[in-house]
Design brief:
- By secondary structure, the chain is α/β, with parallel strands linked by helices.
- The chain folds into three domains: 2-43 and 86-146 and 276-338, FAD/NAD(P)-binding domain (3-Layer(bba) Sandwich); 154-273, FAD/NAD(P)-binding domain; 352-483, Enolase-like, domain 1 (2-Layer Sandwich), CATH 3.30.390.
- It contains 15 helices and 23 strands.
- It has helices at residues 14-23, 38-43, 45-62, 78-89, 91-100, 154-157, 162-165, 185-196, 216-228, 323-338, 368-373, 389-393, 426-445, 463-467, 476-480, and strands at residues 2-9, 28-32, 105-109, 111-114, 119-123, 133-140, 144-146, 177-181, 200-204, 232-234, 237-245, 248-255, 261-266, 268-271, 275-277, 310-312, 352-355, 361-365, 379-384, 405-410, 416-422, 447-450, 453-455.
- The strands form six sheets. Strands 1, 2, 3, 4, 5, 6 and 16 form a seven-stranded mixed beta sheet that branches.
- The longest helix is centred in the C-terminal third of the chain and has 20 residues, at 426-445.
């Protein structure tokens, strides 16, 4: 039986671990059933931004009259937009080709299955199987997939998920009408995109409010702006059934409070009802790897699973589903497996994220409700875009419907507990607070700077930036990643 020093399941953030292991001279196996690059590159945050940015510009043009500019209604060149999108997705080919040339790496195309605690085989695309092989260390970075709720007749009706949208069901042009099931980050983003392109969008959620992970006032603000942009938002609605009427699809909804029913018709249905762990295909019953009730692989602060020498990073461990979080965990694991210094623990107290809808949303740390639940004192500071010159220059006044705001939650000793922003450039405005929150965490962990000496990084060092999660994809990466390009061989 062939044996590898390292086996990595998943070609997203797992690629970082493979590269680090090969640099240390380890023999590696990489298992990937889809395109290299992971969800973010091939069917998520990167290609979606090729659609978000044009949609943002359309919305900006529509509001330009208030600052003295007048634009003709924009003409959407869907083919050109789509070409740019597929150029990004097709980057997976270069990645796969590059890894295919690396010495010491064996690539298996297909789905990983455990046959024993440390042995695996790969179910290949033609339904055949590879020979069994063994990994001394195994890293699970297999990600997650869209959850499709059990709706009567849905398979016969037909639908899209983010996987099929960025795949074989990508539309030749924007739909005339679209129903989106799920008002989370993905649903809100697609609602913004297609409503800006002229599609009649209906956004449906079973919860009382959309983007429920956010502050209630942020959710209400986004919902109002989406409605103003032409999106019909239906909350507290369960989907009972679906069907076809000629070239249109329809779904039957039931309000889970009033029990009233209604039928919504559209050209296409997009499912954005959340995600589920890909652990269900790994045959973990042949191992000692534990999952929670939802199938997420359990890990500790060192990203260890319940089985020795098996680790899990990224979406599959259920601890926030963001690429920057997955990359952060990959870096932690690389340090712990191949580094020579002190082992690091993953810390999730300052996980930032952004929702690229209209308006943009950024989130860091606790909501006010969560702060209240701690029973400890806290204070809230708030400021609106209309209260600063930058906002006024954009034509935002105190009476503007899109007068966004920042809300900062402060704890004892003036610690930052949470930051919530809704409005232009929210993803960039929140990032400095991530670094500030990590300053205290970083100093508390300490690190080895010289032999037998544990000291805290000096005030003003770049250490908090280096150790922080940087929202992906956002312009914050432009500044933060400059630190990765420092040429330490050329001091002046």
């Amino acid at each position: 039986m062939k044996k590898f020093d390292l086996v990595v399941v998943g070609g997203g953030s797992g690629l970082m671990v493979v590269e680090a292991a090969l640099q240390k001279g380890k023999t590696c196996a990489l298992i990937e059933r889809g395109k290299f690059g992971g969800t973010c590159l091939t069917k998520g945050c990167i290609p979606s931004k090729m659609l978000v940015y044009p949609a943002d510009m359309i919305r900006e043009a529509q509001k330009a009259g208030r600052i003295g500019l007048d634009f003709e209604p924009p003409r959407v060149d869907w083919q050109k937009i789509s070409k740019r999108l597929w150029q990004q997705i097709d980057f997976h080919r270069k990645i796969e080709k590059s890894f295919g040339q690396l010495e010491g790496l064996t690539i298996y195309k297909g789905s990983a299955e455990f046959t024993g605690k440390k042995t695996l085989r790969v179910k290949e695309p033609d339904d055949g199987y590879s020979q069994e092989f063994e990994g001394e260390i195994i890293v699970l970075a297999a990600g997650a997939h869209s959850f499709v709720p059990p709706i009567s007749n849905l398979e016969q009706t037909g639908y899209l998920t983010s996987e099929s949208f960025f795949g074989d069901k990508y539309p030749e042009k924007p739909w005339d009408s679209l129903v989106i099931l799920g008002g989370g980050a993905i649903g809100a983003e697609f609602a913004h995109i297609f409503s800006a392109f002229g599609t009649k969008v209906t956004l449906i959620d079973r919860n009382p409010r959309i983007i429920k992970t956010e502050e209630a006032e942020v959710s209400a603000f986004v919902e109002a702006e989406l409605r103003a942009g032409g999106v019909e938002v239906l909350t507290t609605c369960d989907v009972i059934s679906s069907g076809r009427s000629g070239d249109k699809k329809h779904i039957t909804l039931e309000n889970n409070r009033s029990r009233e029913r209604q039928v919504v018709e559209a050209e296409e249905i997009l499912i954005a009802s959340g995600i589920r762990s890909n652990s269900d295909s790994l045959h973990l019953e042949n191992t000692d790897i534990e999952t929670d009730a939802a199938g997420w692989v359990k890990t500790n602060a060192l990203l260890e699973t319940s089985q020795r020498d098996v680790y899990a990073i990224g979406d599959i461990n259920g601890l926030y589903q963001f690429r920057h979080k997955a990359n952060y965990e990959a870096e932690i694991l690389i340090n712990n497996l191949f580094g020579t210094g002190v082992k690091k623990s993953a810390c999730y107290s300052a996980v930032p994220w952004a929702i690229f809808t209209n308006p943009q949303v950024a989130h860091l740390g606790m909501t006010e409700t969560q702060a209240k639940e701690t029973g400890k004192p806290y204070w809230v500071g708030k400021n609106h875009y209309s209260q600063i010159a930058g906002g006024i220059s954009m034509g935002i006044s105190e009476h503007s419907a899109d007068n966004g705001f920042v809300k900062i939650i402060i704890g004892e000793e003036k610690t930052i507990l949470g930051v919530h922003i809704v409005g232009p450039h929210a993803s960039m405005l929140v990032q400095p607070f991530v670094y500030l929150m990590n300053s205290k965490h970083r100093c508390g962990q300490k690190e080895v700077k010289k032999a037998d000496s544990l000291i805290c990084p000096p005030v003003g060092s770049y250490a908090p930036i280096h150790d922080s999660m940087v929202i992906h994809p956002s312009f914050n990466e432009l500044t933060a990643w400059a630190l990765d390009n420092v040429d330490w061989s050329k001091g002046s």
